UniProtKB/TrEMBL annotation:
Protein name: WD40 repeat-containing protein
Record keywords: Repeat, WD repeat
Superkingdom of this protein's organism: Eukaryota
SUPFAM superfamilies: ARM repeat (SSF48371), Quinoprotein alcohol dehydrogenase-like (SSF50998), WD40 repeat-like (SSF50978)
Spans annotated as Disordered: 22-47
Organism per entry: Polysphondylium violaceum
Coiled-coil ranges from the UniProt annotation: none
Keyword Repeat: yes
Top-level taxonomy: Eukaryota, Amoebozoa, Evosea, Eumycetozoa, Dictyostelia
Signal sequence segment: none
WD repeats: 115-158, 227-249, 560-604, 649-690
Length: 1265
């Protein structure tokens, strides 16, 4: 049953009355139908993508299982590769199971994923593509839709309830796999939905009554998409979905004469003859139409009916499909299926493409089997028209007795129509939902149980595979032996009974939870996690309550006889209260209050006369007040402070559905299942009135719902909704999903970044020598936070690491059983089942789950590494996740690089470094074949026909750029050019994190895509402008500029030099440009060496005395850069007293600058055929010494005392000295000159020392005065 939800930072909770198991309820009462005024019918309006949420947190859902949820199958579909089966259930769950039907191998059925999203039954499914990923599209009976990744169940898109103005009953994917067509009860329109945004792109409305069936295919000549629709109006319409031709059907096929539509009997007969399913044969020669009463074959050439075959069972046909051109399979509601062989050799056809697989869904049954199923469902959605047959006797339960079923001869074909000259079909095989094992099992059961077990919830046939799903979550699969049909003798010889063909594979969804059922206690019916204490509290069917510490507690405390009956709900007082209280609601009509520390009973509320289904606190400012909802149709209001009952609201006219409130006016609004809203004044407890219809709707739309509903909490708590109170600053936050009598699904969201920040903060406080109580408390809190890390440790995967985890961390494997999940669009969730989770299953499921798990583990390990004493184990854990597992784990799935990219510029250093490290390590170690496949997949994703959003397209470019920069030698040159062009576009256009990464990558991989950059100076100028933006863009742009400068220094110096010289750019830009030049010299002095004259010319202009403001502003930065040049370059020297700077150039010239006047004073041709390796002033600045390693000659330059003071002074070389060093004669021309390890200096006025590498040479000369 339901439980309360609280956290250490957010006191959540409100009325959750989902367990009001009233017989007249028409929907799951825990559903949040507030999709009207507060929700847009736009799939993107409310939800944030899981990777781009408001806070960019790493939210890791951990679900604590205590049993299997019920899975009454209402829709089913199989993937074309016949490896996955997806089932939708009455409770809105989506189960994804892996199957194996390989001949010669043991067949397997493995439920892998349970996804929770819809609030009502999932009535139809269809397959499609979303960004080149295989997805399943689901539709709920409340008109909601969602798109799910088949690999891991992640919800990619979703809509609120009532997105469609009908209750969907049939859906097919169109030929492009990017759109689906949906029809349903209450509408005569066909809705064409775009899978990439869940928007209605067109509506087809030519039918006069509700549409019951759809089929999609293509005409192969020109691939024109065709859609067929069957309706209660007795027609099948053919639609061309070619743009511009959708409005009018191409053809209309009438199935029966509608002239007597006023006659009730005739109308019912016509409805029973309305198509449940329609399908072309693969060769396009015939059309299969399955109605309740009969199935028929029509020719596609002239729409001529060939024959109709009646159903041998009274409930009628349920669906049908072509197995191939010559085999047709049709089935009944009871699961009996019939395989017919037909002859189409004489039929003409028009060519069709291979049909899109039908979802195999049918309308929900109308019979309430809750008694025979032990209360699995108290009410089922009503079907319509002929699709819900009238069942005679025993309140609709007596369909056909077991005895009568055994007397039926299924070998007889009952034709209701045969066209003259038609080739008669033959019945070659039958399948039964009741296998031989089922017969033996059911012999001792009553008739109602037999009927329910035989009834199917959904069925479909794809190629030669037929599968059905039943109300117990059981899936049966038959492989039709198409290659050996001719060897089957049917009907059997006289006197022999037809053989019962058992299914090839039988699987049950609940089997995935077989090992995590409640051990030693009765069924868990309520659950609560106190996040601030990491305490798990559970209530049981026998009235017991247990408490245990998380993540591991070997001594769970059980408090027996806490209640006399089932515990329905658990709630806690606010953690800030002086005494922590626990409230428990039960079927024994009481609410009990416990002292959580001692578990002493403090008070019992006994104001209800029926089971108390829900308790929840009111929001601020009445947070110390809570309400209760009971099956006796009353609501109680209580004080947590004095434990008194303030008011009892009711009795209401019918069962309570939801509770709202208007805090400003002080009203409590109670919505009941009859559509009325009772308005209660909270202060006085008086009933103000009861309203209905539109007035009731308007009042509810402008009120706040009090709900413990899981989706309401997810939307508001994690930034997916419009709630202003949304925040993600919690460490852990728990919520519970429950549906009727299912065991509660207790989920804890681990906020990895917040946990990491809190560990760092507490560890810093301990390192700063906090002592006494504060120190002890801090250590205890730190220990509790570190214990959360046990959920991320790969227990049991390495026998050498487990002892280290236990010793260094003092941790144990978590209990109870848990699995990881994913938080998707709209707050929808998906979880691994316990069967496949294991220790390594989370890394063998999908790229997203691998990325999320690995990033959470590695980033948190980096944080814990700072504590001290655990460096070795944290390092080994990181290596294990990033290096060992990808190489050794069979079936390892590489991480989602798009997911990792989102965190490559994260504000948390631990997260950012971890994301980059995982990305780099994974790419570098990836096998060549997998690497090529990865690159091709992202390149294909960029094709315009994939319809990517601008953000998704940009992110794909970023991923490719990171991949290329880490493995440049394996990256295709054509791809490199394309990536380079796309990166430029992102830099010129955008802002935000992706632009930051684009700027970083354009520099990091510049050598890869430089050939695609047509205007390098323009790009450099753009990036330079970004260096003056806010962080982190500014620092990223600076680093990128330096990387580009190392590869293309010529353009760098040209652009940055122009920025320095351009007086119109402003002082800030000039200073920034000077700093950038200095940074490049420090980073890569060799790259700037050929352009030193240009650099010095630009820099000294900032010292022009005629612009004193600029000179003063730039003096410090310019001086710093010049000092860097003197340190880095032996051919640059500076004389402080005279403020002279000398440069020896690569073309043999000596250039002297006067920094006082910011001008170039003299230029001397010193070495006409060589370059100058080093140069220096003497102490008084009246002489220069220069050396060229190419000529191996030192020259002394001298002038008179007025040498530096007079224009036009003559310079002369007073001495030339050869050195004993070996003369350098390069074998090949040096394209890029390098700085030599050489220096020359004046040791005395009459002596020089030349130092080259590890050698030196001393020279004596005449003193220079």
């Amino acid at each position: 049953m339901n439980t309360g939800v609280f956290s250490s930072t957010n006191y959540l909770g409100s009325s959750n009355i989902s367990n009001m198991n009233h017989s007249t309820s028409t929907q799951s009462l825990n559903s949040n139908n507030s999709g009207s005024s507060n929700n847009n019918n736009n799939a993107n309006s409310n939800g944030k993508n899981i990777f781009t949420g408001k806070s960019n947190d790493i939210l890791l859902p951990v679900v604590l299982w205590c049993g299997a949820p019920a899975h009454w199958i209402t829709s089913i579909i199989i993937t074309p590769d016949k490896k996955s089966v997806i089932t939708g259930s009455q409770s809105g769950h989506l189960a994804i199971s892996s199957i194996s039907l390989d001949q010669g191998k043991e067949n397997q059925f493995i439920p892998k994923i349970l996804s929770i999203g819809h609030e009502t039954a999932i009535t139809c499914l269809a397959l499609g593509e979303y960004e080149r990923k295989e997805v399943v599209v689901s539709a709920g009976s409340d008109g909601s839709m969602a798109v799910w990744n088949i690999t891991d169940g992640l919800c990619l898109l979703s809509t609120p309830p009532h997105f469609l103005s009908c209750s969907p009953s049939s859906m097919v994917a169109l030929s492009n796999k990017k759109q689906v067509a949906v029809v349903g009860k209450g509408s005569n329109s066909i809705y064409i939905i775009d899978i990439h945004n869940l928007k209605i792109v067109s509506t087809l409305s030519e039918h006069k009554d509700w549409i019951t069936s759809l089929f999609a295919c293509t005409v192969s000549q020109d691939s024109i998409p065709i859609l067929l629709s069957g309706s209660l109006d007795g027609t099948i319409r053919f639609w061309s979905l070619k743009p511009g031709e959708e409005d009018i059907p191409l053809q209309t096929l009438c199935l029966y004469n509608n002239n007597n539509s006023n006659n009730n009997n005739s109308t019912k007969k016509n409805q029973d003859d309305s198509p449940l399913s329609i399908e072309f044969s693969p060769n396009g020669k015939s059309l299969l139409v399955v109605c309740k009463n009969h199935w028929s074959i029509f020719t596609t050439h002239n729409s001529h009916k060939l024959w109709s075959i009646d159903c041998p069972q009274p409930r009628g046909w349920f669906g049908g499909s072509f197995v191939n051109d010559s085999l047709v399979l049709v089935w009944t509601r009871e699961g009996r299926s019939f395989l017919y062989k037909i002859d189409q050799t004489d039929l003409k056809s028009f060519s069709l493409g291979h049909p899109i697989p039908l979802p195999g869904t049918s309308p929900l049954c109308t019979v309430d089997y809750s008694k025979s199923l032990g209360g699995i469902s108290s009410s089922l959605s009503k079907s319509y028209g002929s699709l819900s047959s009238s069942l005679a006797g025993n309140n609709g339960l007596a369909m056909t007795s077991t005895t009568h079923q055994q007397l039926l001869d299924y070998t007889i074909i009952n034709f209701s129509y045969i066209s003259e000259g038609a080739n008669i079909p033959t019945l070659v095989l039958t399948f039964s939902n009741e296998s031989s094992k089922d017969k033996d099992l059911n012999n001792n059961n009553n008739m109602e149980s037999n009927l329910v077990s035989l009834k199917i919830g959904a069925a479909m046939c794809w190629s030669n595979v037929f599968l059905i799903g039943d109300p117990f979550g059981k899936v049966k699969i038959w492989v039709i032996p198409v290659n050996s049909i001719d060897n089957i003798q049917f009907p059997p010889p006289s006197g022999k009974r037809a053989p019962l063909r058992d299914p090839n594979l039988v699987g049950t969804i609940s089997d995935a939870w077989r090992n995590c059922e409640s051990r030693g206690k009765t069924k868990v019916t309520a659950s609560l996690v106190l996040d601030d204490l990491m305490l798990l509290i559970r209530g049981y069917e026998d009235g017991s309550i247990s408490t245990s510490k998380l993540p591991t507690d070997l001594l769970t405390k059980f408090h027996t006889n806490s209640h006399n009956s089932k515990v329905n709900y658990l709630m806690s007082s606010h953690p800030g209260n002086s005494k922590r209280l626990l409230f428990s609601a039960s079927n024994d009509c009481t609410i009990k209050v416990w002292d959580l520390a001692s578990f002493k009973l403090l008070h019992t509320f006994s104001h209800h006369t029926g089971p108390v289904m829900s308790i929840t606190p009111l929001p601020h400012p009445r947070k110390n007040t809570f309400i209760s909802i009971s099956e006796d149709k009353t609501i109680g209001m209580y004080s947590m402070e004095d434990l008194s009952c303030k008011h009892m609201f009711g009795v209401h006219q019918s069962s309570i559905q939801k509770v709202h409130w208007k805090s400003e006016q002080g009203y409590l609004l109670v919505e009941t299942i009859d559509g009325s809203v009772s308005i209660w004044e909270i202060g006085s407890g008086e009933l103000e009135g009861v309203v209905y219809g539109q007035i009731a709707k308007d009042i509810l739309d402008n009120s706040e719902i009090l709900s413990n509903d899981w989706k309401h909490q997810t939307l508001c708590g994690y930034g997916y909704g419009n709630s202003s109170s949304s925040n993600c600053n919690f460490l852990t936050q728990s919520l519970v999903y429950s549906h009727k009598n299912d065991p509660p699904i207790q989920t804890i969201f681990l906020n990895i970044k917040t946990i990491s920040d809190e560990i760092s903060r507490i560890n810093d406080s301990i390192q700063n020598n906090y002592s006494g109580v504060i120190g002890a408390a801090a250590k205890k809190e730190l220990t509790q936070l570190v214990s959360i890390f046990s959920y991320l440790i790969p227990w049991g995967m390495d026998k050498n690491l487990d002892p280290m985890y236990k010793k260094d961390f003092q941790l144990r494997p978590p209990q109870p059983d848990f699995t990881f999940g994913l938080l998707g669009h709209g707050g929808n969730m998906s979880f691994l089942t316990p069967l496949v989770s294991g220790t390594s299953g989370k890394l063998q499921c999908s790229d997203t789950l691998t990325a999320q798990t690995t990033l959470a583990a590695v980033s948190l390990a980096r944080t814990i590494l700072k504590i001290g004493g655990v460096e070795n184990v944290c390092s080994q854990l990181t290596t294990f996740y990033c290096a060992i597992l990808p190489d050794t784990l069979q079936g390892y799935v590489y991480p989602d690089y798009s997911y990792l990219t989102t965190y490559c510029q994260d504000s948390s250093d631990d997260v950012m470094i971890s994301a980059r490290s995982i990305f780099r390590t994974s790419i570098e170690r990836m096998p060549q074949a997998a690497f090529k496949q990865l690159v091709n997949s992202y390149v294909d994703l960029l094709n315009t026909e994939n319809g990517l959003s601008p953000f998704e397209r940009s992110r794909s470019i970023i991923v490719l750029a990171i991949i290329a920069s880490n493995r440049p030698n394996d990256f295709n040159n054509t791809f490199s050019s394309r990536v380079g062009l796309e990166l430029q576009k992102m830099i010129y256009k955008g802002t935000g994190n992706l632009t930051v990464i684009a700027v970083e990558l354009i520099g990091k991989g510049f050598s890869l895509w430089k050939d695609s950059i047509k205007d390098t100076p323009g790009l450099l100028k753009c990036i330079f402008s970004l260096t003056m933006q806010a962080e982190p863009l500014a620092s990223t742009a600076k680093n990128s500029l330096l990387l580009i400068g190392s590869v293309d220094p010529r353009n760098f110096i040209q652009v940055i030099g122009d920025e320095i010289s351009n007086e119109s750019t402003g002082t800030t830009s000039t200073i920034n440009a000077i700093v950038m030049v200095g940074s490049l010299i420090k980073k890569d002095p060799d790259s700037v060496l050929p352009f030193l004259p240009r650099v010095i010319d630009s820099i000294i202009k900032s010292l022009d005395p005629h612009t004193p403001t600029l000179r003063e502003a730039c003096l410090r930065q310019t001086t710093a850069v010049l000092h860097i040049m003197v340190r880095k370059y032996p051919m640059v020297s500076f004389h402080h007293d005279s403020q002279r700077l000398v440069l020896g150039t690569l073309d043999g010239f000596i250039v002297i600058y006067d920094l006082k006047t910011a001008t170039r004073w003299h230029k001397i041709e010193a070495y006409p055929q060589s370059f100058i390796s080093c140069i220096t002033f003497n102490d008084n600045g009246k002489a220069l010494s220069s050396y060229s390693s190419k000529e191996n000659v030192i020259k002394i330059w001298q002038t008179s005392s007025s040498f530096f003071g007079l224009l036009g002074s003559q310079f002369s070389c007073t001495r030339t000295i050869s050195t004993p060093f070996e003369k350098i004669i390069p074998k090949t021309p040096q394209i890029i000159p390098k700085i030599e390890n050489i220096r020359i200096q004046w040791s005395t006025p009459s002596s020089l020392i030349l130092m080259k590498d590890e050698s030196s040479f001393s020279i004596n000369i005449d003193p220079i005065n």
